[in-house]
Amino acid sequence: MFVIFLIFPLIGLADVARARTTVYRLGVPEGHTTPLYERLFRTLENKGLIVGENLQIVPINLTDFQTKTGKEKIRREIAEKCDLFFTTGDHLVIILAIKIQSPLLFVGMTGPEHTLPPTMQKNSTGFYRGSRVAILKQSIEMLPEGRRGKLGLIYFRGSSLKAQVPANQKIFKNLGIELVSKEYADKADIERVMQQFKDEGVKGLILYPPGVRKDELPELITWQNRLKLPVIGQTRDSIEKGILGGPTMNLKILMPNIADYVAKILQGRNPSQLPVKYFGPRYVVNLATVSKLGLNIPREVVEQADIVGLAAKAKVQQKKNTPLVPGNFVIGIPQQIPAPLLKSLGRALSEHGYVENKNLHFIRFDLKNSNNEEKQQQLVRKIPSKADLIFVNGSVLPSLIQLLGFKTPVCFISTKEIGDLVPDDRKNQFAGVIRTSFASTVKISQMMMHGAKRMGILAHSHSNILHIIDQLRKIADDYGVTIELARFSSASDIGAAMEGLRKRSDFVLLFPPATTPEDIDEIVYQQNQLRLPVLSHFKKHVEAGFFGGPMMDMNKVTNKLAEYIDKLLQGRSPCSLPIYYYQDKIIINLRTASILQQDIPADITAQAEIVK
Questions:
Q1: Alpha-carbon span 556 to 595, nearest angstrom
Q2: In the chain, what are the domains?
């Protein structure tokens, strides 16, 4: 124990010392305007990387990217001048078109336009903040319904946003909204453009982070208030300064993560060794601006928003003594749903006014043999007639997707890979939470296990692991990892299953559906006897004695699920609720690490929650 705590400070000092004797070159797009860059430079100081001392910021001109010669010139310049190139979504599209081969770190949106081509995946990693469509839907929902018919998009002349106008207009058209775009020349020109928006019947403005330069934002806010023309943005800083609000990233969490990745890559880590992370947007509303504009923000937005400006404390007081929601509601639950998940969800639903056996009832149905056509038809007839909503987790979502012909709304929680199985023509029926992808789990597991390449998966025979194991193996293979599967029917089978895994695996990941407390106790015993580390996504398993793993915060996840279920039961369409991305945290049991004599990488302990 003393060794662990004495070594870590020495490692940190060594990193800082190296950082101060080497000048690192961080490339960024020339002329960037997103405030995130300057905030990153300040955050990097906490990592010992100081601009002008041991960190050189290298602006790269990306304007000549549309020709073959221009692309090659930019690729060569980045390769020769930068140790790492960092970009946000406004320039990420250009970087993907150029297909740079140098190390890349990005902040972007999920969706085709920001998907890395295969040739770039081995040298790239980054952070996604939801899809463009989902973020724009959230932005629109900030406004009362009567103000959503015609919106404006504003940006300064020369901004990279101009190239994105057609794509944005197409998205808005599909949503039944007219989008008018205008550019302004300078600070003095903002008044003219804002007045034009007003004269043309625009009811609100969409502001992307690079749309307005920092020193021009106060002028935009002035004319927002004078013309009563609300501006919806995507950064908390701009909202705190006076625009109406919008779906934002939590920079207090995001920036340390970006800075950590920058430091690791500059000091020699390959970007592909760092898992891509997902940060779902969260509403922030400036109530002082709401008051100035005389707006009535939709209740469902205010209920889930962080409040800045006036009356910031009012929202906190609304949660006490939640009355029962009038009516009787029925949620369909597959038999295979884990009991701890259902218990936590029930607690979260009670805080929204839904209490089991009062105004809320659960009915269970069995999806085990849903690939049988006759069983499918029985379920299709049964589910809509009895349930207002279906709730499923990732282990049974693939089976539910196979059922055709029912229109009951579905709320789910799953990994990204399983969530992606929902067909495009049925996505308007599904809403829910996407947690860490299996690809990310593989990367984190490798980091925890010093690059181990042989993963064992332990699963109960009643789980649906056989339905997805081929997909998991394909994902793991992309990272050079093999998967060995072992199943058990009861606690008495676990010893033999883990003995078999020990011969062909460096560590084990538990696939938790259908496991019992007795199973968990036996797995811990066998782990310690065989010196075979077992990882899990659940904190309670690590507290029981598992080595560790990428952890899901059950309370946080079920609170979001309860929020979505409440909205769906009250009549909201699933397609109006953006998919929420939850990023797992790493957790480690130090006592188990000592028993297994398992060394823990310093960069893992630096970000992990420790159980002693």
A1: 31
A2: 19-127+251-272 (3.40.50.2300), 134-250+281-314 (3.40.50.2300), 329-436+562-573 (3.40.50.2300), 440-551+585-611 (3.40.50.2300)
